[in-house]
Amino acid sequence: MIYTITLNPSLDRTIEVEELVYDDVNKVVEVKNIAGGKGIDISRVIKELGGQSVALGFIGGYNGLELEGRLINDGVICDFTRISDETKTNIIVYQRKKKLQTLLSTSGPEIRPLEIATFFNKIQDIPSDSYVVISGTTPKGMDENFFAQLITTLRGKGVKVFLDADEGALKRGVNAGPYLIKPNIHEFGRLVEKNIIDIDEILENAKPYKNVVEYIVVSMGVRGIIGISKNGNYHVIPPKVKVRSSAGAGDSLLAGIVFILNIGESFEDALILGVACGTSSTLNPGNNLCTKEDVDMIKKDVVVKKF
Predict the structure, then answer these.
(1) Would you say residue 286 has pLDDT above 70?
(2) pLDDT reported for residue 114
(3) 185-192 and 167-175 helices cross at what angle (nearest 10)?
(4) 103: helix, coil or strand?
(5) Residue 61: phi, psi to the nearest 5?
(6) Residue 105's pLDDT band (boundaries 50, 70, 90)?
(7) Strand pairing category for 88-95 and 100-105
(8) Cα of 11 vs its chain's centroid, Å
(9) Contact 111, 88 (CB under 8 A)
(10) Edge-to-edge, what's the strand order for the sheet holding 100-105?
(11) Residue 103: is its pLDDT beyond 80?
(12) CA pair distance 72, 223, nearest whole angstrom
């Protein structure tokens, strides 16, 4: 079973208007509420691909209940830890005429020690043959060492951990020895404390981590991804598409990868599906993720270079 961990989820409200006119009344054309968060996005994509996962994390208040209800209604299994504070909201204002969107993000909740302990006890019940994806940021009240603690605990049980984080959480998490890390090229640069631009720089600076992490995946936007393993390296390139939004593309990418590895297929196959999922996600506006129909179509045109 695949488990996704989103410590700081959100209820995302997208408000669509034809055009935003300042100092005047703006008629709302459509409102959409979606459960948001990197791990939650991964669970949604895995469901779209025909798989199943369990979404873990913290939820609180009416926003948390709506978030959970929407996921359950979408067929995603939830096992959230309840907190006393309210789950945060993100408000996205989308202008149809200009095809522009503005994000208004509220402050997230503070997690209390009792809630952390309750969540950690739940983590210790995850079966040893599972795949766990840890992604996003730590909320207020939690130290960024928490990701490393999770990885150490789960790794000791034989669980394969996938880490998608940034800065201190990524640095400490890598040292704990996850199964796979998936930074983008900018996050990878912050990890190695260098300005990384090209593929050769990625390969060279990834060498110190090959004995700690089984797989390294570095995403580079339209240039595709670099997949690094002890058995070979890959440059996987997506076909050219008309990008409407890059939001959620990295989460869709990681969802495709963990979905394939979970069913026992190869790292190369995982990278191909991951790129197809990430590219499919860019075809849709706002927080709309990939569709299986688009993924199957795009997958045929993904190019793989092994070296």
Answers:
(1) no
(2) 97
(3) 70
(4) strand
(5) 70, -165
(6) confident
(7) antiparallel
(8) 16
(9) no
(10) 28-36, 10-17, 88-95, 100-105
(11) yes
(12) 36
Q: Which residues lie closer than 8 Å to 215 by C-beta, 6 or more apart?
A: 179, 180, 181, 227, 228, 229, 267
DSSP classification of residue 90: E
Q: What is residue 231's three-state secondary structure?
A: coil
Segment 193-202, tens digit of pLDDT: 999 999 999 9
Three-class SS of residue 227? Answer: strand
Q: What is the mean pLDDT of residues 93-110?
A: 87
Amino acid, res. 207? K
Average pLDDT over residues 199-222: 95
The partner residues of 34 in beta bridges, in order of sequence, read: 12
Sequence ranges of the domains in the chain: 2-306
Neighbours of 124 (CB within 10 A): 10
Q: What is the DSSP letter of 244?
A: S
Average pLDDT over residues 134-141: 92
> Is domain 2-306 given the CATH code 3.40.50.1110 in the classification?
no
Query: 188 falls in which pLDDT band (50, 70, 90)?
Result: very high
Task: Read off the tokens for 208.
Answer: 């110190």
Q: Hey, what amino acid is at 233?
A: N
pLDDT, residue 246, reads 78
User: 101: pLDDT confidence band, cut at 50, 70 and 90?
Assistant: confident
